């Protein structure tokens, strides 16, 4: 019996059941943003990995294209034009060192990697099937892949017994694969069918890249178990120079290797799918453009069939095609960007060191993984109206910080991801005064 016909479907309703993070984001949206001159008491929002380091250069470049309405008022196909696919394929061949030449027909565009995660989830898994994800990971993966699709996640816990287990380094590859094996076997015992593993490389939120050896071992694991390997490489070029914060440990950190570049026996290239987009490395998140790079013709066609709702706009298509085709400009952009990113990283890590805030050393990405667990002791009791009645200590701390004017992403555990680029860090209030 339908009680109230005006209500959304059960699955629609499930998406609006109480979600502390979403509720918190709504509260944050209502607060005036920080501005040094006009609203110095406003909110410093550090939750988004936005890249505004090269905004001036990008704005001048887009203006120099001198686009006219006739350039963007007619349709391109839903996954983008063939010129865009060619430009992306060339770019990937130039920067991702693929083991096989990537061709335009391997590329499918959509309005952002978020949309492609949803599409891939639908096209790789049947209802009830699962994707494996190492923890900690990008907080929106589950949201983006599960909101519309009845799929599950099987967590591969890399932070439970050993908070600082380094899953990226080659020397831990066997230990990491063992964790995947254990989680896989447990899922099988529970009757869960796993279809894929999802990697974020470079990793949001840890800012680290998987070693080639680790990628190979994970790909072999996928080969043995018949799983797809999906690699979100949206931060591929957000590399920080090796000695950006003077730490000796940093020099041992691996630089970026794409899943497209691994080539060893037992790996079926049809099972390797990479996601890339213009939101992060190029600071163009408002263009809403993301790309699936896959050699799996049938999977790509199945994704394409549902790409009308994620239609690429002609405007974005034209801008990004021009940018990618201008090899001199984008190569110089990347060089300058990495220098500025390294400077921002040094500024931030220096700030954290000076204020005795522990963080996980990193060499990629737009964020740092900081550890505020020592402050959790102030939030051990039950929550209250001000900090969330049924909130965990982490959520209470998040809410407390929000009230003080700083908004951070809480993890499922005790650490927080701190986005480093939203504002120059010296303008941020002292977080250690808790
Ligand atoms: C790992 C990762 N994938 C995807 C996205 C979203 O990308 P897009 O703007 O292309 O939807 C983000 C944004 O923060 C991200 O961090």
Structure description:
This protein is of the alpha/beta class and about 425 residues long. It has two domains: about 10-55 and about 330-434, Aspartate Aminotransferase, domain 1 (Alpha-Beta Complex), CATH 3.90.1150.10; about 70-325, Type I PLP-dependent aspartate aminotransferase-like (Major domain) (Aspartate Aminotransferase, domain 2, 3-Layer(aba) Sandwich), CATH 3.40.640.10. Helix content is about 35%, strand content about 15%. It has helices spanning about 10-15, 20-30, 55-65, 70, 80-95, 115-125, 140-145, 175-190, 210-225, 295-305, 315-325, 325-355, 395-405, and strands at about 45, 105-110, 130-135, 150-155, 195-200, 230, 270-275, 290-295, 360, 365-370, 405, 410, 415-420. The strands form three sheets. It has a seven-stranded mixed sheet, with helices on both faces. Helix 7 (about 140-145) links the parallel strand 3 (about 130-135) and strand 4 (about 150-155). Helix 5 (about 80-95) runs parallel beside helix 11 (about 315-325) and helix 8 (about 175-190) runs parallel beside helix 9 (about 210-225). Pyridoxal-5'-phosphate binds near residues 200 and 290.
């Amino acid at each position: 019996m339908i009680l109230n016909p005006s209500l959304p479907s059960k699955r629609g309703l499930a998406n609006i059941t109480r979600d502390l993070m979403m509720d918190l984001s709504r509260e944050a949206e209502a607060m005036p943003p920080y501005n040094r001159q006009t609203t110095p008491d406003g909110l410093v929002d550090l939750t988004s990995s936005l890249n505004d380091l090269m905004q001036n250069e990008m704005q001048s470049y887009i203006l120099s294209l001198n686009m006219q309405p006739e350039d963007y008022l007619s349709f391109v196909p839903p996954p983008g034009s063939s010129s865009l696919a060619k430009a992306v394929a060339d770019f990937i061949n130039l920067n991702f060192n693929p083991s096989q030449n990537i061709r335009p027909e391997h590329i499918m565009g959509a309005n952002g990697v978020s949309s492609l995660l949803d599409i891939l989830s639908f096209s790789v898994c049947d209802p009830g099937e699962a994707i494996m994800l190492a923890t900690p990971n990008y907080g929106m993966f589950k949201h983006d892949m599960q909101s519309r699709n009845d799929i599950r996640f099987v967590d591969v816990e890399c932070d439970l017994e050993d908070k600082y287990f380094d899953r990226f380094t080659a020397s831990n590859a066997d230990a990491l694969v063992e964790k995947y094996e254990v989680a896989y076997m447990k899922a099988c015992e529970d009757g869960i069918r796993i279809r894929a593993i999802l990697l974020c490389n470079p990793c949001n939120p840890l800012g680290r890249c998987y070693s080639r050896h680790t990628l190979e071992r994970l790909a072999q694991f996928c080969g043995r178990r018949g799983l797809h390997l999906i690699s979100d490489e949206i931060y591929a070029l957000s590399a920080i120079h090796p000695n950006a914060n003077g730490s000796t440990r940093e020099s041992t950190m691996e630089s970026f290797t794409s899943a497209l570049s691994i080539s060893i026996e037992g790996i079926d290239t049809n099972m390797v799918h990479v996601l890339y987009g213009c939101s992060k490395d190029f600071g163009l998140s408002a263009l809403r453009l993301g790309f699936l790079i896959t050699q799996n013709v049938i999977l790509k066609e199945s994704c394409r069939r549902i790409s009308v709702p994620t239609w690429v706009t002609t405007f974005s298509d034209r801008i990004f095609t021009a940018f990618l085709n201008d090899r001199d400009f984008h190569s110089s952009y990347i060089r300058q960007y990495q220098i500025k990113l390294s400077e921002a990283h040094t500024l931030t890590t220096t700030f954290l060191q000076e204020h005795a805030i522990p963080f996980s050393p990193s060499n990629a990405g737009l964020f740092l993984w900081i550890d505020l667990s020592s402050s959790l002791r102030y939030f051990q009791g039950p929550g209250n109206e001000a900090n969330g009645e049924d909130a965990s200590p982490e959520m209470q701390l998040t809410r407390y910080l929000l009230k003080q004017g700083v908004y951070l992403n809480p993890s499922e555990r005790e650490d927080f991801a701190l986005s480093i680029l939203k504002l120059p860090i010296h303008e941020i209030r002292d977080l250690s005064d808790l």
